[in-house]
Design goal:
2 copies of one chain form a homodimer.
Chain A: E1 3-9, H1 11-14, H2 21-32, E2 36-43, H3 47-60, E3 63-67, H4 78-86, E4 90-92, H5 94-106, E5 120-122, E6 126-128, E7 137-142, E8 145-150, H6 154-169, E9 176-184, H7 189-195, E10 206-212, E11 215-224, H8 227-244, E12 249-252, H9 257-268, E13 272-276, H10 282-289, E14 297-303, H11 306-311, H12 317-323, H13 328-342, E15 346-352, E16 367-374, E17 377-384, H14 390-409
Parallel strand pairs in A: 1-2, 1-3, 3-8, 13-14, 13-15
Antiparallel strand pairs in A: 4-5, 6-7, 7-8, 9-11, 9-12, 10-11, 15-16, 16-17
Chain lengths: ~425, ~425
């Protein structure tokens, strides 16, 4: 099995200015190609340190994939240092220069002279065209070691990897890794792990628990000579997990709870509406993240004040006054209002204290009421995250609202 | 200056199942402490490979900070391997076991037996209490080398770093790094870099350009004996950059465009409303990301169908029919509708084709109309990202809408 390392180059990564999403993307795609990632590293835009790391990586791995540092500015040195490492010279590649020029022409922007640097390439490399930017990627080889260079911006790196780098790398794939994630909602990682403790000791497929965004997942990963074989190893284990986690299981490889909800609504030909206070549009945003959401979603209201809750959603002013905006009756009326004005089949509402501070009522930060309304009636679920973390609370409240909608559609009782 | 490495442990990182946000957080905080991060690495939950990496890191660095692999399950081995590396034994730490037990008690959940493992600690370590989970962190030292262990979940790692690890690390700070980011909107990285080309060659402070989320930024970083000195090095350079980028500059260290907009609205005591189609609540979500947004935001409507655009926002059915939902008149009427029903001082709207596919009209994916309305009138800005990337298009359209609101408040003309 070919062994690979991922190196991210950029002082902005070492200083913590940006999150390194490239490594995650590359790692996940390489796993799919059956290429084992031994290590991920990040170094600054520093010639000496990058040369050292290249030397170490070439000792361990057949393939080194670097991202970042292909930009036009003087601190972008990845290509130059990698060519120095392999003893290759850079020369102007006219067709690439033409492409860069026409890229700027298409955007009606003059090309900055420094962009010429991006058309300097080693003579015998394989060029990876950049469909979303100016810096081409490339692959070069020496003594059986391969170096691939990709641009840092994710929207340039991702299509370039899929279109050019993955086909280049297919020569290294002899084994295939297939990996599935079993998603759950409403159970902690430890409790989930105990329910499947014996499966965690399996060798092929492996079963690994982890927590992500407030949810517990199990990753089932098989290694085999073909996709078919790998799938056959995974299937019975996934079925076993589904049975053991029945109450909490919501999907395999379904990405996230919003994807599961949109798929379920499509399947049932139903529409959903949202009425949000503390989540401020996050539920609507997550539903509409999913391509084709317009089939299942027409209408969302962000009612961030009492007045708007009353005026647009028809929430009783008396209820707002008596119980406060963060209350069971208001959550119920928000959901009912959204159902009424949207004409949807189901509506969810959220009203809560996202934090970091409480409102004037001194209700606890993390308290949230979730309403679900459809023609059969309205239910309100109360949760309390117990945390003061605004981002976390908004995410978890939105997730719980989506899950509550899912359970209502499936006619299951919600879990607090 | 003390030199540090960050090691992330977890097969889920090497397989690309999760994005490594811990490294970014740690790197940014270490920079603030004046500790230089030489390298970031990620390895799997693998004893041999982790031992090798620890050996390499200890050659180069004084401090090794590891995150991940402190969980209760059998694949969590970071603590065990680090103790092996330092030749230290683990023993049950009763006060920690009591804390873990009371953590579960507080959540009304029985403690799983496997959680006992998390109370096994080396005798002479410094314990970092975990206020958001069960696994304590720790620091241990041998022959002048320090190993710090932190849990993987960001919401456990972040507070633990700030409360316990940062104070522990303060002994290594002799110099201070101060770093400021100068944010721009509407200019590309290359063009921005050309405007400040001479500044990019400075040594202290350094000025580095980069692109992030469709925006170009400049990072100004100074190293000095005290915060004051470092700030004095940065200040004139930042002023110079602001002057050169005047049209595009929107703030220093202001985080992002929504933070700038919320701050501006607060300063002017104004309220904003939103009417969103293709961004599906993303603008409202981004505004309400900012704590205290309720001072400036009451009302957002996600009108994802023509019917809801008409019914809730009062968009003319004739306009929808004649020009289609993705059109200048509809964007204008959406903004005017939001202004009217919300009673806000300014309203923004977005209607466009997020992709990946077009709608029935075959308008190009990436086309978007942004409306801005206030009592002085309504303007519509047309943009076309030229990309088929749904997430990118939604992000950029939302950003442009926020920037259009900002420019209107400042009485500047919008830039397409």
């Amino acid at each position: 099995m070919a062994v690979c390392e991922i190196i991210s180059v950029g002082t902005e990564i070492l200083l913590g200015d940006i999150v390194n999403t490239d490594s995650q993307f590359l790692a996940s795609r390489l796993a799919g190609l059956g290429i084992s990632v031994l290590r991920q590293s990040a170094v600054g835009d520093n010639r000496g340190r990058l040369l050292t790391l290249l030397g170490e990586a070439a000792q361990r791995s057949d393939i080194i994939i670097l991202s970042g540092g292909l930009g036009p500015t003087s601190d972008d040195i990845t290509k130059e240092v990698c060519c120095e490492f392999f003893g290759k010279e850079l020369e102007l590649h006219e067709p690439t220069l033409e492409k860069i020029k026409s890229y700027f022409k298409g955007k009606n922007v003059p090309m900055a002279e420094i962009n010429t640097k991006q058309a300097m390439l080693p003579r015998d490399c394989v060029i990876f065209p950049n469909s979303n930017g100016t810096a081409p990627g490339l692959a070069m080889e020496k003594d059986g070691k391969h170096i691939l260079l990709l641009p840092g911006p994710p929207r340039e790196l991702k299509p370039m990897f899929l279109e050019s780098a993955a086909p280049y790398l297919s020569r290294f794939s002899d084994k295939v890794i297939i990996s599935h994630s079993v998603r759950t909602f409403g159970i902690g990682e430890s409790s989930m792990a105990e329910k499947v403790a014996d499966l965690l000791d399996m060798e092929n497929p492996t079963v690994a628990p982890y927590a992500k965004d407030g949810e517990a997942l199990l990753r089932v990963t098989a290694l085999a000579g073909s996709e078919d074989e790998a799938e056959k190893l995974c299937a019975p284990v996934i079925t076993e997990i589904e049975q053991r986690l029945s109450d909490y299981f919501y999907g395999v490889d379904c990405g996230c709870i919003e994807e599961a909800v949109v798929a379920l609504l499509k399947e049932r030909r139903m529409k959903i509406a949202t009425a949000e206070s503390c989540t401020g549009g996050f539920i609507a945003k997550r539903i509409t993240n999913i391509p084709g959401a317009s089939e299942v979603f027409d209408c969302g209201v962000v009612s961030y004040s009492n007045e708007i809750k009353h005026k647009i959603l028809g929430v009783d002013s008396a209820a707002l006054e008596e119980y406060g905006a963060v209350s069971e009756p208001v959550a119920a009326q928000m959901a009912e209002g959204a159902l009424r004005i949207s004409g949807a089949d189901i509506a969810v509402s959220v009203t809560g204290i996202a934090g970091p501070d409480s409102d004037s009522t001194n209700k606890p930060v993390g308290l949230c009421f979730i309403g679900v309304a459809d023609k059969t009636g309205t239910e309100v679920l109360q949760i309390n995250t117990g945390r003061r973390d605004r981002d976390y609370n908004r995410y978890v409240c939105a997730s719980n609202a989506l899950n509550a909608a899912r359970l209502r559609i499936l006619k299951k009782a919600p879990k607090g």
